[in-house]
Amino acid sequence: MSKRAVLEVIALDVEDAVAAQTGGADRLELVTDMAADGLTPPVAVFAGIRAAVDLSLRVMLRRSEGFAAGAAEEVDSLVRVVGELRAAGADEFVLGFLDAEGGVDLAAVERVVAELDGCRWTFHRALDHAGDRDALRKQLDGLPGLDTYLTAGSATGVDTGLPTLLAEAARHGEQGYEQQLLVGGGLRLDHVPVLRAGGIDAFHIGGAARPNGWAGPVSAGAVGEWRRAVDDEHDEQDT
Asked: One Pfam family of this protein, by short name (predicted)?
């Protein structure tokens, strides 16, 4: 029997979190400032959401737009924030840093991961902007806590990344490919059947959960539609 797919929803605040849980989300990615593609939320926002829902919460670790870790003092600042979040109860995270050549900034990633003390974490869509996806995966192989890659298969989204997603899913279990593929970035409901048939069992939505765009809140109804879609594919594969 195939397992229930993971549905992760981006949440900016308590209202988003409660609606996502009501709609059937399994996990939330907590961010602020989607105009900058999602930055680290204030500790108080994390604490409020943690008190409001009982879902898994993955907290974004990024201080500025883009995929560069920044100067040493910026990494120091991020490490301090990790300590504050951990003290507030955060135990799952999202991060990913590239260097100027499009390779993984391994030093910055390792520095931050050391502060997570074994917590589970996702390497986010920096993967889609890397010069060599396979090399990046091999370099990160064995880092403690890394259990997920958030990816659209392409910097331009799932439409163009679909062949890459299916090819990487087929390599699951190989060195550098043990982690779960969490698909997000231009993801639509009509992608779900093909992705599920290819063995992908985790889906990430942001704008798709917000009928009124990023200026409006998460809709429990929209999340429920996604929940039914991924569950329908699960049920069909079990018959």
From this structure: CutC
Q: Could you tell me which of 51, 186, 207, 62 has the C-alpha nearest to residue 121?
A: 62
Kind of pairing, strands 120-123 and 92-95? Answer: parallel
Please report the beta strands in the chain, taking only residues with DSSP state E, as ranges in sequence order.
6-11, 27-30, 56-60, 92-95, 120-123, 146-151, 180-183, 202-205
Q: In sequence order, what E strands does 21-88 have?
A: 27-30, 56-60
What residue type is assigned to position 196 of the chain? R
Residue 102 identity (one-letter amino acid): G
How does 175-213 read in b/e, with b if 16+ C-beta sit within 10 Å? ebbebebbbbbbbeeebbeebbebebbbbbbbebbbeee
Residue range 209-214: mean pLDDT, rounded: 96
The arithmetic mean of pLDDT across residues 149-166, rounded, is 98
Residue spans of the domains in the chain: they are 6-238
The two tokens of residue 111 are: 């520095």
Count of all residues that appear for the chain in the document: 239
Burial of 60 (0-12, 13-18, 19+ CB in 10 A): buried
Model confidence, pTM: 0.94
User: Smallest Cα–Cα separation from 127: which of 181, 75, 199?
Assistant: 181
